[in-house]
Write a structure and sequence with these properties.
Mean pLDDT: 84
Number of helices: 17
Shape: globular
Order of helices and strands: HHHHHHHHHHHHHHHHH
Strand content: under 5%
Distance between the termini: 18 Å
Structural class: mainly alpha
Length: 466
């Protein structure tokens, strides 16, 4: 099976040439559009109206129902390229299907059919994305068009983030106040004047094309590691200086947006993946340990300096999350088998919330929300799928890397793009402990596609005696 990183150096046979170009190109366009246009939670579908003119079409988010059209096109377009011979390991494939099946069972007794219907459609799209990655995209001989599409979409996210940081948010606040005094624009003001919108523009934390700053941090954690590695490989024919400048600028853009998002969990998780990545570099053990330790110490010191005021004020958002999680656990105990229905956490939280806590629609923990919404089986299937994949793929990559170092004449070198992809997936799965990325199409759909790629490209145990 061809590793994810073999992107352009191998010429596919004639019968696979179309697959090598068409499907990755389609997936690349899809992921760029998804990242830029579908950054709102699925349960907020009613608040996202269709654009009414060309300008709104370009700059405004699109209704999520449009996103299902794109997912359907990607899924149907991938079908001619599916390979039904199940890759190793076969057992891993069952978890996402069991998880989705349990969502359907839970939906039969939901307390809010409107929210559950929106959520089930979204979860179906997630499963479709996993299948595309697992059965079709993982077998393409060249993923260059896919990475180019992802780079283009992420570039728009970075550009929008930089614009917001360097005056865009202030201009938005001024324009909104001016519109409120203009009777001719009262309809547009009513459309925009929501508590969520006012909260977003009142802060200097950037959010780019995503629903709010922490969601932007999730996008950077998920996409930055693999795009950095893919960009490094795709630019291998450029001069050494140009290559390093290009990758360095991309890293700066991503890290700057992560910093400006003000995401505290994002900062800490980012430090963790940088530390973990350094420990796997092919350099002397003492050098990489010292370098990783210094970077970790500097990052933690910077975190303490930046957020000391936040913690001195009582860490209000962290305290609020503990109330969300307490309520989610209580809801899961009340209905342990099927929960209250996918996407319905907010209905139970209204009843259980602390009077001092801010109202929320989502539990800010994807795993606990699974327990509250679809019972403990839903939680076990989802958590088992995500973390089972993370652990197995990493263990498999390490085995492959070890074999490559011992038997270089018989095996391929370690697949560093796959490792970077694993870093992004692991970082996002970790952030899901404190956020709701599972319910944001711009994050969840690519996340499931990446999981499909990783699970399909795991390397079976080799017979080293041959």
């Amino acid at each position: 099976m061809m590793p994810v990183s073999e992107m352009s150096q191998i010429t596919p046979p004639p019968e696979r040439a179309t697959s090598s170009k068409l499907l990755p190109a389609l997936a690349g366009v899809w992921i760029a559009v998804t990242l830029v246009k579908f950054g709102n939670p699925v349960i907020l579908e009613a608040l996202v109206q269709a654009p009414e003119n060309g300008l709104e079409f370009l700059i405004s988010p699109w209704p999520i129902r449009w996103g299902y059209v794109f997912v359907s096109l990607l899924f149907l377009g991938s079908l001619p390229f599916w390979r039904w011979k199940l890759p190793h390991p076969k057992w891993l494939l069952g978890f996402p299907f069991l998880w989705f099946l349990w969502q359907l069972f839970s939906a039969t007794q939901t307390v809010r059919p409107d929210l559950t219907n929106l959520t089930i459609l979204h979860f179906a799209a997630c499963l479709a994305c996993f299948c595309v990655g697992y059965f079709a995209l993982s077998h393409a001989r060249s993923l260059v068009p896919f990475w180019l599409g992802l780079l283009a979409g992420l570039l728009i996210v970075f550009w929008t983030g930089f614009d917001q940081h360097y005056g865009g948010l202030e201009q938005t606040r001024r324009a909104f106040e001016e519109m409120k005094t203009n009777a001719a624009q009262s309809a547009l003001v009513q459309k925009l004047d929501t508590p969520e919108f006012r909260k977003k523009i009142s802060s200097n934390r950037i959010f780019s094309t995503l629903v709010y700053p922490n969601a932007l941090a999730g996008a950077i954690l998920l996409f930055l590691p693999p795009t950095l590695c893919a960009l490094w490989q795709m630019s291998r024919r450029a001069s050494s200086i140009l290559r390093k400048v290009l990758v360095g600028l991309w890293a700066y853009a991503g890290l700057a947006c992560l910093y400006w998002s003000g995401s505290k969990a994002g900062w800490l998780i980012g430090l963790g993946i940088v530390f973990w990545a350094f420990l796997h570099l092919p350099v002397a053990r003492k050098i990489k340990w010292w370098t990783a330790a210094i970077l970790l110490a500097l990052g933690l010191a910077g975190f303490a300096a930046k957020y000391s005021g936040y913690f001195s004020k009582g860490a209000t958002s962290a305290v609020a999350r503990t109330d969300y999680w307490r309520a989610a656990l209580q809801l899961s105990v009340e209905k342990p088998l099927l929960g209250s229905g996918p996407g319905t956490f907010m209905d139970g939280y209204k009843r259980l919330k602390n009077p001092q806590s801010e109202m929320t629609r989502l539990a800010h923990n994807d795993y606990l929300q699974q327990a509250a919404d679809s019972g403990w089986p839903g939680f076990l299937f989802y958590a088992g799928f995500i973390w089972g994949s993370v652990v197995f793929v990493y263990r498999d990559w390490r085995r492959h890397a070890s074999e490559a170092s011992c038997l270089r004449s018989k095996t391929e070198p370690p697949d560093w793009v796959a490792f970077a992809l694993w870093l992004g997936v692991t970082a996002f799965a970790t952030q899901s402990l404190v956020e709701f990325g599972l319910y944001i199409p711009a994050l969840a759909w690519p996340f499931f596609l990446f999981l499909g790629l990783l699970c399909a490209n795991t390397v079976p145990t080799r017979d080293t005696s041959q």
